[in-house]
Amino acid sequence: MDPVVGPVPLPFPMAHGTTTLAFMFQGGVLAAADTRSSCSGLVACPASQKILPIHSHLVGTTSGTSADCALWKRILSRELRLYQLRYGRRLSTRGAAKLLSHMLHPFKGTELCVAATLCGFSGPSLFYVCSDGTRLEGSLFSVGSGSPYAYSILDQGVRWGLTVEEATSIAREAVYRATHRDAYSGNFVDVYHVTSKGWTRRTREDLKEEYYREKEKRRLERETRGTALSG
Amino acid sequence: MLSAQGFGGPGKMKEYHYAGAVEHKFSPYAFNGGTVLAVAGEDFAIVASDTRLSEGYSIHSRDSPKCYKLTDTTVIGCSGFHGDCLTLTKIIDARLKMYKHSNNKTMTSGAIAAMLSTILYSRRFFPYYVYNIIGGLDEEGKGAVYSFDPVGSYQRDTYKAGGSASAMLQPLLDNQIGFKNMEGVQHLPLTQEKAVQLVKDVFISAAERDVYTGDALRVCVITKDGINEQTIPLRKD
């Protein structure tokens, strides 16, 4: 009997679809992501975590297949810890990106799907790594099905001189607009801020509330415009 | 010689039948149906499953529950392809024994969940076609539910439905246990009696609308005093 050769056709869909973004500014690196995990039409999980801390000064955003991202981030954490124990110093963000890229290389051509941005604070601190082999350094990245919508907000507002509040506000807004237009993004938004002291996490925010606040604001604007015109 | 493909008989439109060679690829998977549900309370956890084992239009068995006891405080529910469910539970049992022998203690629910994630991912390119949900008590005695996808992605939840009727049950649980999309409702904590009643009602509804769910319901209630099992009949059609 011949052994099963080649990829086996799967009887179930994998989890995909997301909006994640990360950018550098004077206050460090900001990473934001939605929390919807979809499985070809069904929301498998409305409250998943797409930004995973790797160690105290490095977080990674994940996009692609949930299982691949979760497990490979875990493997990366283990390898970085081993490096620290062997060589007595922490590997830089650039080194971590190269390590992840080289670990994923043997799986190029398989159905593995990992598209991560590593946000750290040791030297140039934002890298994009993808399972097809891409490894890029940059100051602004957005990944996922909702990224075109996020890019439009980010390109308009991100500058080096932003304060932490302004940067958080832009990141939240970008994810919010992307979730509004992209069916595969939604539910909540997570924001992580990485500085020289480590990463901090903002409380998870329900975007449904934001949508209702905006609807209320538009309604009030229409009313005042209506009274102004008629008055 | 009359070929079976050419022989149409009187009035048969044989010119529209496909008469060439057809390749049927062997699929190593089958779908055996079934639904699993788990709910975590303050000091209890419930894992429930129906007991129907089906394939295509047939029912193989009306008494094949999908809850498997792992330890005194953990139960796993597996639905999907029954062959992979059996193998996976055998592997988990073996790993539990190995852990017990090397570490001289029983695995906690969280540890079992983390281990299952790596077991599932080790078969990333020929996955176990199983939707798993683990229900149990964590180290502090609080209820815990861990839900998985077939390749090992997992997280801790308060409640989760998996299997063929999961898309029908999950929104109902979001509303009744998570109080989602309701306004002006008091968020009362879930008592054990209310949770068991809810699980029974929810499965009765699932059996109405999902053909692969029915026959009987097996409910396992996990508390610090042990695991209590009950079987409730469901529709047999």
TrEMBL record, chain A:
Q: Has keyword Hydrolase? A: yes
Q: Name one GO molecular function term.
A: threonine-type endopeptidase activity
Instruction: Please name the PROSITE patterns in this protein's record.
Output: PROTEASOME_BETA_1 (PS00854), PROTEASOME_BETA_2 (PS51476)
Query: What is catalysed by this protein?
Result: Cleavage of peptide bonds with very broad specificity
SUPFAM superfamilies found in the cross-reference section: N-terminal nucleophile aminohydrolases (Ntn hydrolases)
Spell out the catalytic residues: T18
Pfam (any one) = Proteasome
Q: Name one GO cellular component term.
A: cytoplasm
Where it sits in the cell: the answer is: Cytoplasm; Nucleus
Report the main location listed first in the record: cytoplasm
| Key words of the record | Cytoplasm, Hydrolase, Nucleus, Protease, Proteasome, Threonine protease, Zymogen
* One Gene Ontology term from the biological process aspect of the record: proteolysis involved in protein catabolic process
- According to the record, the signal peptide region is none
Annotated InterPro entries: Ntn_hydrolases_N, Pept_T1A_subB, Proteasome_bsu_CS, Proteasome_sua/b, Proteasome_suB-type
Q: From which domain of life does this come?
A: Eukaryota
State the protein's purpose: The proteasome is a multicatalytic proteinase complex which is characterized by its ability to cleave peptides with Arg, Phe, Tyr, Leu, and Glu adjacent to the leaving group at neutral or slightly basic pH. The proteasome has an ATP-dependent proteolytic activity. This subunit is involved in antigen processing to generate class I binding peptides.
Assembly information from the UniProt record: Component of the proteasome complex. The 26S proteasome consists of a 20S proteasome core and two 19S regulatory subunits. The 20S proteasome core is composed of 28 subunits that are arranged in four stacked rings, resulting in a barrel-shaped structure. The two end rings are each formed by seven alpha subunits, and the two central rings are each formed by seven beta subunits. The catalytic chamber with the active sites is on the inside of the barrel. Incorporated instead of PSMB5 and PSMB8.
Family that this chain belongs to:
Belongs to the peptidase T1B family.
Protein name in UniProt: Proteasome subunit beta
Automatic annotation (TrEMBL), chain B:
Does the UniProt entry include the keyword Nuclease? Answer: no
Quote the cellular component terms of the Gene Ontology held in the record. Answer: cytoplasm; nucleus; proteasome core complex
Any one Pfam family match given in the protein's UniProt record, by short name: Proteasome
Keywords attached to this Swiss-Prot or TrEMBL record, sorted alphabetically, are:
Cytoplasm, Nucleus, Proteasome
Q: Which GO terms describe its biological process?
A: brain development; cellular response to ethanol; proteolysis involved in protein catabolic process
Which CDD domains does the UniProt entry name for this protein? proteasome_beta_type_1 (cd03757)
Quaternary structure annotation from Swiss-Prot or TrEMBL: Component of the proteasome complex.
The name this protein goes by in its record: Proteasome subunit beta
- Which organism encodes this protein? Poecilia formosa
